[in-house]
Amino acid sequence: MAPRRIIIDTDPGQDDAVAILLALASPEEIEVLGITAVAGNVPLPLTARNARIVCELAGRPDIRVFAGCDRPLVRPLVTAEHVHGRTGLDGPDLPEPCMALEEAHGVDFIVETLRREPPGTVTLCPLGPLTNIATAIRRAPEIADRVQEIVLMGGAYFEVGNITPTAEFNIYVDPEAADIVFRSGAPLAVVPLDVTHRALVTPTRNAAFRALGTPVGLAVAQMTDFFERFDKEKYGAEGAPLHDPCVIARLIRPALFSGRHVNVEIETGSALTLGMTVADWWGVTDRAPNATFLGDVDAEGVFALLTERLARL
Known about the structure:
Layout: E1 4-10, H1 14-24, E2 30-37, H2 44-57, E3 65-67, H3 81-84, H4 106-116, E4 123-126, H5 131-139, E5 149-153, H6 169-173, H7 175-182, E6 188-191, H8 193-196, E7 200-201, H9 203-210, H10 215-235, E8 240-241, H11 245-252, E9 257-262, E10 264-266, E11 277-279, E12 291-297, H12 299-310
Parallel strand pairs: 1-2, 1-4, 2-3, 4-5, 5-6, 6-12
Antiparallel strand pairs: 7-8, 9-12, 10-11
């Protein structure tokens, strides 16, 4: 089969960085058409910088990187330096990028790519707040029918929230954008905390990254060493969830994941539950299904894939 052609929309973030590395290490299954940065884990100048750092770490300075939206649609930006550090990529000592940022806006790149390419041939992979994707859909509503699939990391059902008691970070940062995306009619697959909290970077798994003995393996081990401190203290788990690489792993090995096609709506009006992904997991409403909401993952399979692919870089 031909590689899945994707645009990665991202706010790197250490786990975003690992997702980008996994995609770039998997050319048989994935062709990265470009990377669009969005404000999220850290402000836009840093996410655009970090995306280029990761491309160069992977030996792929040819990848086009675009800066997108620098703030949510209607709300002040909430960031996560308390998790990812001041730069978003704290942990390894990586050089400043040499590759240039593309001049075009990331939203324009998304719209123009989906208009140019044959319908059903481009997948969007948002790893951060959905501001860029929602802005593209508002600007050009017809692209919702042209996208092959939107596979996103965000939301939760059984795990509920990680930035508030009821909301996952990516959705909480820009709930209005998420609402636009979930109402767009585009095919959606959601990788929520229910999945990513099962994909933990245990000491054994992190040691496997370090044992690769390559700059990529060492950098990934140092990234996960850094950001796991927050999640281990918060959840009392044996390691940190590796959220965003699950999006790419689902494209490469869909059999590692399972879920249900259900209705998912985004709460935008309640101060108490703002950003909650209200998933009708049990089918108790008559609302039409609009998303494949994943609920389980073969974590050993994901980390075996990740270690094998990172060894290529």
